[in-house]
Amino acid sequence: MNITLRVWRQKGKDDEGRMVSYQVEDVSQDMSFLEMLDVLNEKLTVAGEDPIAFDHDCREGICGACGVVINGIAHGPEVTTTCQLHMRSFKDGDTIDVEPWRAKAFPVIKDLVVDRGSLDRIIQAGGYISAPTGTAPDAHAVPVPKTDADRAFDAATCIGCGACVAACPNASGMLFTAAKVTHLGMLPQGQPERAARVVKMVNQHDEEDFGGCTNIGECAAVCPKGIPLDTISQLNKDLLGSLASGKM
Amino acid sequence: MTELYTEGAPIQDEKAPDGPIAERWDKRRFSAKLVNPANRRKLSVIIVGTGLAGASAAATLGEAGYNVTSFCYQDSPRRAHSIAAQGGINAAKNYRNDGDSIYRLFYDTVKGGDFRSRESNVYRLSQVSVEIIDQCVAQGVPFAREYGGLLDNRSFGGVQVSRTFYARGQTGQQLLIGAYQALERQIAAGTVTMHTRHEMLELIVVDGKARGVIVRDMVTGEVESHFADAVVLASGGYGNVFFLSTNAMGCNVTATWRAHRKGALFANPCYTQIHPTCIPVSGDYQSKLTLMSESLRNDGRIWVPKEIGDDRDPRQIPEEERDYYLERAYPSFGNLVPRDIASRAAKNVCDEGRGVGPGGLGVYLDFADAIKRMGRPAVEAKYGNLFDMYQRITGENPYETPMRIYPAVHYTMGGLWVDYDLQSNIPGLFVTGEANFSDHGANRLGASALMQGLADGYFVLPNTINDYLSAGPFEKVDEDTPEAKEAAEAVRARIDKLLSINGSRTVDSFHKELGSIMWEYCGMERTEEGLYKAIDRIRGLRDEFWRDVKVTGVNEELNQTLERAGRVADFFELAELMCIDALHRRESCGGHFRAESQTEDGEALRHDDEFAYVAAWEFTGTGESPVLHKENLEYEYVEMKQRSYK
Ligand SMILES: Cc1cc2nc3c(=O)[nH]c(=O)nc-3n(C[C@H](O)[C@H](O)[C@H](O)COP(=O)(O)OP(=O)(O)OC[C@H]3O[C@@H](n4cnc5c(N)ncnc54)[C@H](O)[C@@H]3O)c2cc1C
Ligand code: SF4
Ligand code: FES
Questions:
Q1: Which residues contact B263 (CB under 8 A, 6 or more apart)?
Q2: Domain spanning A116-132+140-245: which CATH class is it, in words?
Q3: Predicted-complex ipTM score
Q4: How would residue A247 be classed by pLDDT, with cut points 50, 70 and 90?
Q5: Which chain B residues have a beta carbon less than 8 Å from that of A50?
Q6: For the whole model, what pTM was predicted?
Q7: Which fold has domain A3-109?
């Protein structure tokens, strides 16, 4: 099939960007979206033009590196990562708009590549369990009820892609933050730091220029790992509890 | 063949203590010098890589109080390729009470590696495995659990006990997030300085010691020098030399190859693992191959039609017209034979013309029986995300029709040579994880790479690096030190060269061609004739690359083409060494199958009298004959036998 792409091109962080149109011919249904971009980039390179920069690495939907807004939807029409989106989701003759994540907390570096260092800094603020190497008791010392372990796991599947932020009209990073708070908060090992963790992480979130959460739910709708919106309610509960008890 | 390489003096690991194998690690920890906590802050360590091996080391050394600087090429340390590991991590916990022990894990790993690894290292790996699980659980890694709240296990290829811990199909992600969080905690504490989007392009060696790295800031193009008392490379494997592999797109050999060029020996480069269960290639635009976790072989059954050219819908092929070839040829291990055996068996049935799917390059992995036996919900709970991934990529529903799989390059057992302390032959240069050659011999067992990466980073390196650092801090070096200047200039010159060729072929077109040469001649089956041909073609293609590659743009920007060009340039040099190594090893062992060396029924045939050694190669110049240094392997605890999984 033949596709018209309109891609956001921006040379550097201080440059103005614009949408540029490209024709891509002979696109196979079985190509991934990124492979379609590869094919276009090969052509651009041979023609001596600058290929389109985009982040990607695993191409298996797990590293969280890829992510662009496709026709206005973070990661495109299927609820998955951009690298796992295949061209069979489009039709011959389609025009597809491709843009970077847009959020104040994610400045554009070039074309479709943005800086998501703010997510790492939220983790730095408290998204961990302090367990220095060598201090651990036997793994079976503390059994974890399967339901808690499963809930922790569900939240721990977050890949840090940032689609939730890109989708949110407020550019809030609350789903990402809540996923980590829930992952660690559901486990017995995470209890000692639970109250302090949520406060520190939310403070950092706010410092990073992410917007506030107003419960719109666009984040959960695009999350490739299906992190549910009620994860944020869990965070709010933890946050209130922690502030009320003054246990920070 | 003699002109392809020369032989130099043998080498030896001088760090592993003698005495009973179970006491060696204790002995080494006792003899290794310690560093007073107050002095640690004055000692600096550079760590390249934030996968399991790098992040765990950075976090642990940071906790110990060393001054650590870390690098990765991704935008976040959490995205290192370890994140993609699916199936699980081994540990000799014996929680199943099924006869497992440290000794058995050791035995299985030495045997699985086809008697080409060091006993001392493997024994230590098995000992330490137990602590890894404790450590990860303490960090909040959500391993699969049973209803009673205890940890669940599964079994993996090449073994008969259940010792693999897992977190659905994303064990690597969960383990890496654990290590990443520990790393971020140290970044916040100020013990680790993290540089993301920085690629190491050169090692700085001063007075024979590794003292720093030259990196390129991938956003600004700035070429920076960083200095330390010791350098750790945890930069992963080089499977992408084949272009198509299960590795992440950015996986590369540059960090270790640059160190090799500076004198570090490269060991057993030809030992590559071809994984039997990957999604087959669908077209020439293909950019990578996707692994379907080996754990699927626990419940899936592998088969092809008995008749050549039987292209019926697999569901229409009656039971008696199917050949469950692994169960037939290996009754005691069946579908769970080690990877090298399963891969070659798939290649053989496809070579016979019995392969399925496009081009006949595929075999079925069928869950119909498992769904009947366990019910669909149980299969879904166990493998749901893998099935979803398969469906997303192929457009076929594996609950209804058998998966199609084919072998793909997956893991590289070879890597920089290290001693028992994980130190290379360059003092102060340590190598951990997939980047070193150490523990898997000629074939790695499933779920053992994660174990090795974390063993190296959490428990081994932090205990051995002290011994070296205790002599530091070493003499001050900086940008003006001649060796550092020279290294930085070499990096700049290479970048300028790549940008100035302005030829007619893209980097990817060269990489794809190199990959197809390697797959054909240095892949699942290797022959003398084919390897000679490959070396010739690689040399020709490398010359063409340096004459005709087209790299657009400039250095002073995010330039992904330039990044790839540098990596491919190093792959060309590595590829030649892999072929020379494969050619010189006139035996079959593990992942290295020489057609000339097989038993009557087509199994790999080792020649222990001639080849029971590690081949450690010394660099002498691009296209020049490397020098072979042999490290003899001796087996005191496991008797060398031809492997049998019949
Ligand atoms: C799809 C897949 C599934 C797997 N499943 C399993 C499994 O179930 N069980 C198992 O045991 N093993 C598995 N493996 C193997 C295992 O994942 C890897 O061997 C292991 O994770 C390697 O870890 P590492 O830390 O050595 O390197 P990596 O995780 O590869 O990390 C390399 C790091 O080095 C950095 N780096 C590389 N080059 C440079 C450079 N030049 N400059 C700066 N930084 C650089 C990267 O940014 C990255 O941070 C799997 C592998 C694949 C491909
Ligand atoms: S919550 Fe979902 S969308 Fe947000 S970063 Fe995590 S995986 Fe991506
Ligand atoms: S490239 Fe890793 S999630 Fe898409």
A1: B205, B425, B426, B618, B619
A2: mainly alpha
A3: 0.98
A4: low
A5: 552-553
A6: 0.97
A7: Ubiquitin-like (UB roll) (3.10.20)
